[in-house]
């Protein structure tokens, strides 16, 4: 079993390395949004697209089923492509390579990948992205970085999302950040809400600085 | 790859069949709680345990890391055991068989399994349980049954949880139920909140009727 797993991951890593080289050569920034289902990734992403609509951004949406999310993104005027994984629990590097071929990317584009909602499996699959960005909704509880450490260890940035709901919840933002830094001392953190707009400028700035 | 997947699932199914036989012979009801991370499974479960504490109930907790959840259950006076899956994204039948050996179950006990928070992978792994119960928090969005159909197709009951937060959200409960019934026309539904107590009597009644 360990050998099979190593073979699958080894093959994925080789394709991810090709993706990364291609993105680097074309000066494209690729970020991979990872989270539980229902963390608010798509709502945050539609608001992000609205703010960046004329600034060379494309989206790759991953879901087991439905094209709902790509439809939501296209409504903002941004190009989007949906990848359905069927029984699969994560996007892999080959899916991203193929999606990029179909998108016919331009030099310098920002490619935002929304992975399948899953705090476990996508952590192990390099897509060739520059950064993984973990999104954690304040409705989920501040213990999640400790219970799903691989994902937070693999991410460069954590967005603590839906902070507009904090008045209605028992959620300790600082404890959540402390937990994330226990598994990844370097992780950056921005508190966001697409509903109230809190943190959106900071998140957009973060993206633009990486380009 | 398909062959390997079939072998893994075939082996799991064989152990699950042994578990099921053993549970049936000892008149034990086993339910498997499945959901995203942060759906409120553990809080719902601690409240369930408080209400059933003297009624032969034990809990098996699954998480990648930490023993936090089993600790929370034990505080209610209910026996609990923690299974850490490490890199693994789901509990499997062998883990449950082994946990039941260690728990030294009595005749007629209710065994509640809290699976790893993951709306994808646990759907494919039979543990020998009588029922899967899918928990969906109203913070997650009503589209989740369509986007993660396997889990809702595999479950007999859906708990629409954290309904105390409905006044602060845009969440259409009926649309959520309609979506769940598109992928599983037979699925039963109870709206619950461990915080307000809504639906808890109905959920406890449902459990007791299965015994």
Describe the structure.
2 copies of one chain form a homodimer. Chain A is of the alpha/beta class. The first copy, chain A, has a single domain, classed as 3-Layer(aba) Sandwich (Rossmann fold). Chain A has helices at residues 2-25, 41-52, 68-74, 93-103, 144-147, 149-154, 173-183, 200-210, and strands spanning 29-35, 57-63, 79-84, 110-114, 131-137, 157-161, 188-191. In chain A, helix 7 links the parallel strand 6 and strand 7. The mean pLDDT of chain A is 96. Chains A and B meet through helix 5 of A and helix 5 of B.
As an assembly, this protein is homodimer
> What's the count of strands of chain A?
7
N/C terminus separation of chain A: 40 Å
How many H/I helical runs of chain A?
A: 8
Which H/E pattern describes the elements of chain A?
Answer: HEHEHEHEEHHEHEH
Q: What name does the CATH topology of chain A carry?
A: Rossmann fold
Estimate the mean pLDDT confidence of chain A.
96
Largest interface: A-B, 36 and 36 residues
Report strand order across the widest sheet of chain A. 3-2-4-1-5-6-7
Helix/sheet category of chain A? alpha/beta
**How big is the Rg of chain A?**
16 Å
């Amino acid at each position: 079993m360990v050998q099979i797993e190593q073979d699958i991951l080894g093959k994925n890593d080789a394709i991810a390395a090709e993706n990364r080289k291609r993105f680097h050569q074309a000066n494209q920034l690729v970020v991979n949004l990872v989270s539980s289902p229902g963390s608010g990734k798509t709502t945050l992403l539609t608001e992000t697209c609205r703010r960046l609509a004329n600034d060379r951004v494309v989206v790759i949406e991953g879901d087991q089923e439905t094209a709902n999310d790509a439809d939501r993104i296209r409504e903002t005027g941004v190009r989007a492509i949906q990848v359905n994984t069927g029984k699969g629990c994560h996007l892999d590097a080959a899916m991203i390579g193929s999606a990029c071929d179909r998108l016919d990317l331009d030099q310098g584009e920002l490619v935002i990948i929304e992975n399948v909602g899953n705090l476990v499996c996508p952590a192990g699959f390099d897509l060739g992205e520059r950064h993984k960005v973990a999104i954690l909704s304040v409705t989920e509880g501040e213990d999640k970085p400790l219970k799903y450490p691989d994902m937070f260890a693999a991410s460069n940035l954590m967005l603590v999302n839906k902070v507009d709901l904090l008045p209605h919840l028992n959620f300790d933002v600082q404890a959540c950040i402390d937990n994330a830094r226990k598994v990844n001392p370097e992780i950056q953190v921005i508190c966001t809400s697409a509903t109230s707009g809190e943190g959106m400028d900071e998140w957009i700035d973060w993206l633009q600085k990486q380009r």
